[in-house]
Records
---
Amino acid sequence: MPSDDEAQVLSQWSEELARALQILDLDVDQELVLDLARKSADSVIHAAAPVTAFMVGYAAGLEAGKGSQGSDVSPAVATNRAADVAFKLCSERAEGKGSEPTNQS
């Protein structure tokens, strides 16, 4: 977990980025994202952290975006569902059940 100073900087950065991206109503569960990044980095490779966070966010956005077409899936629920999938894969990797990377020349 980040220190209090780091958490404050992260919060300010998130607000600044949200304004720049024009997603002012976005409520980011920073602890969930940080935990997801940490677990994916630990169970795959360090570079998996940002890729996992992006892909979970993208999947959540797609699911929540369907909400405007009659579904009642909130962004928070969609994020938790996508994160649960990623956490499960990370756990499987940690237990040796996941796919191993292949070296291709």
---
Amino acid sequence: MSIGPAAAPAASSSSQCGGEPSHAHQRPHTEAANATIEAAAAVLPPSSKAVRWRDLPNKDQLFILALCRLSEPLSNVCLLPYIFYLVRSVLPPANDNGSAPDPDAEAARVSTYSGILVAAFPLAQFFVSLPWGWLSDRHGRRISILAGLAVSVLANVGFGLSRSLGALLFWRVLAGLGNGNVGIMRTVTAEIVRERRFQTKAFLLLPLVFNSGMVASLALGGWLAEPVANLPWLFGPGGAFNFDGNPEGVGWALAYPYALPALMNALVLAGTLLLAVFGLGETLPGREATEDYGLRAGRSLLRWFRAYIYPRRGRGYATVGSQDGDALVEGGDHDEKPPTADTGPLKTSTPRPFRQIWTREVLASLVSFGLLPLHNSAFMHIFPVYLSSPPADNTEATIFTFTGGLGLRSASIGIWMSSFGICGILLQLFIYPRIQARIGTRGVFRIALVLFPATYAAAPAVRYVLLGLVVCAQIMARTMAIPSTVILLTESAPDK
């Protein structure tokens, strides 16, 4: 089950923090089992990270899966830099008497509908996460991932070309439905890489790709929105794409000023979909050898490419077993098939009865796990609206009553938010593991709990440079809190 656009990726990134999975012998059929693997992998000692990226088995499958993971950040967070301006452009006037609307009331109205539009995506994910898991357990992981990508492509095209609030909401919900299969991708990671010594490194891949995709989508979303203003050399009056010589700019860019980011997302995801159709193998236990027309066509294309486009003399090709996705790789010393000593079917264990899991520790961890995305996701989605809102006179404002924002354009907001995303990635990679190793998971979580209210209280009262410091503090708290809640929840379970 997804816990929101901001929380989900960071929860996945808990695998960066070290620990050998104590339960790696279990069969990872469900999101719950796989979340346990990820959280346990988050406490590996540094010495266990000697495995290099090039040592990972099934790198072709992991690469395709990582690209598939881009679907959620591209479909979800790309609109944040321009959400305020998009809603304002399609929102009908509040009154019909022809009088000028009150700027503060209009900004509040836009903010309300922006929140509804943003919340539709994770709400749709919430309702379909379990059905996606059911579908993948019965019909295969491959069809579930391909179907989700296809829905995401369609939803992005529809969203970009919509000019009414109702249509935007429909396509936003559809995008959330298509991206409810995030848990399946984590499960596929565990099924692709079954050797315990490789799993920690493999579980780093998806969250890193997610965070990188989020940074790129925020930057591109800000710059590609309103292309006539943000990219005048391409879409402006004298732009390279203004073939008709329109003195105002490219016609379709004026009619659909916020279509380009969504259409770019659709193009990237369509390419990923094709790559997955031709190359992503089935990993559902018992069906690993299953092939369809797409995989057969992909194998033929790969064989043709290696024979005529990129031949290597003196080197033959060998077909590896289903453990490596039945992909064609070069023979010789670089065969990626893992040693057989640690492979093979994973054993299952008898699950504890559902009524026995509700210990005090589990309940406390679940409450923390649920409250964290509640306020963290709210901040992540309110913050760009605050940056977009026009400035207002707040001479008599208090910490609880204030209006207006900074009045930044979508391109500036995209740069701001992507810069903060880069900070989050660096903190996840280099700061959190060291702090967690020194003061423990609960100590890190307590520090985060102190930082959150301080940053939320200070955010509306500061401007520009100080606001950057506040947001960096919020990112620090988020980076420490999200993996900590995953680890605490896993450790509190009476039975893995």
---
Amino acid sequence: MSRIFRKFRLSQISESRSGKYFIYAIGEIILVVIGILIALQINNWNQARNDDKALKEYLGKIRSHTLKDIQWLDSLSIYRTYVGLQCKKARKSILDKTEEQNLSLLMSCGSAFMDYYFRPNTSGYEALKNSKYFGKINNTVLDSLLTNYYRIVDDIAQNESSYNHYVNGQENYLSTQFDRSLILATAFLPPDSLNIRATPQSEYYEDFAEYTASASYRNVIGLAAFQFESMVNQYKKLKGVGNGIVTEIDVLIKN
């Protein structure tokens, strides 16, 4: 009988130890799982922080490039506004048949033949588009601004290309009709240098009068008087969107 009770007590002790060991094992497993979850969370947090840093570097480049674009737009606006106004005055003089009195005005419109182009720095934006971080700005205010910005850039490129192509054609034709050596000399040589030459000043003016009276020259004046204003308006529109991009990037970088 005593043997039976002794076996019973031993079995109870064994079962108690097994139960405690089972609870301990479960606790160990839970701790391991919690440790893994914490490690994953830390890894995800570090990855998110690295991604955020990389995105901000891309945005910083776009911001810098946009600011430089705006400076170039300001310079182009000043140039085209001035030349456009000169061409409008020259066009009025032509309509009023006062070209002879305003020959110097018509001469100043020769700047309308210069083929300037607005060439934005797109490298920062293209780099972001080709990176894995581009999705982070999808359907955001910045995404909308950038899309609008480069749509206007394309419109400007088409406008400038159309104008410059036409002007180059007119200039090439004029080159076949006139000896422009006197005109170029007046444009690029200082007055003191011209005064000591054998060619009298009156001959320069005669050459200019004939040159500026040509249909091709006046066609360019007329086009510049109209189209430069349109170009400047496009520059202003793009500048406004560009300032919006810079402001939006400043907000994102600070967050």
